[in-house]
Specification:
The chain is mainly alpha-helical. It has seven helices and two strands. A hairpin with a 6-residue loop joins strand 1 and strand 2. The protein starts with a strand and ends in a 14-residue tail after the last helix.
Length: about 180
């Protein structure tokens, strides 16, 4: 990135700032790639559309305020051909006209899972569970539950390790 000093008019190139707090944890815990691959296999059974899982994962990244997860899942959605309106509206999905009832149920489920419940109430109420179960059969509901667990696994890595924001898993994530 080039920056011009307003006083001298001299252009300088800023060094690339390191955003990662830690090196790639896979270098120290090689089993991480096996865990990650197993989670992707478990959620890749096609019982829940991949776009729905990416919407859920994007919302999770937004809820925890993590740029890495937000950019990564936005990239997945773009590559899958999702409209900019749908991607942008994930943060305000409750009143956005771009989502199916099934997607709304999935987004409500991830929000209930990640956000604190009102005092004395369950995070996932029986009513919410029933609404989600109306849209997903038993296999799909189990898969959606694993997908929410999957993003929670990656939330820990993302908020603690703070990898570089990337739009693809093929890009360099760790310094």
């Amino acid at each position: 990135m080039t920056h011009t000093n307003p006083t001298t008019g001299t252009a300088t190139t800023a060094p690339k700032a390191s955003l990662s707090r830690m090196p790639d944890p896979g270098e120290f815990v090689p089993e991480l790639s096996d865990i990650s691959a197993a989670l992707f296999r478990a959620t890749g059974n096609r019982s829940v559309p991949r776009a729905t899982m990416s919407l859920v994962h994007l919302r999770a990244g937004q809820i925890v305020g993590n740029t890495y997860l937000t950019i990564l899942n936005t990239g997945f959605l773009r590559k899958a051909g999702q409209s900019e309106e749908r991607i942008t509206a994930v943060s305000s999905w409750q009143d956005a006209p771009y989502f199916t009832y099934a997607e709304r149920a999935a987004l409500a489920l991830v929000e209930a899972t990640l956000q604190p419940a009102p005092h004395g109430r369950e995070r996932v109420t029986d009513e919410l569970y029933a609404e989600v179960a109306k849209h997903y059969d038993e296999k799909a509901l189990a898969t959606l539950t694993v997908a929410i667990g999957q993003i929670n696994f990656f939330i820990a890595l993302a908020v603690i390790g703070k990898p570089q924001p990337v739009a693809s898993l093929a890009d360099q994530q760790w310094d």
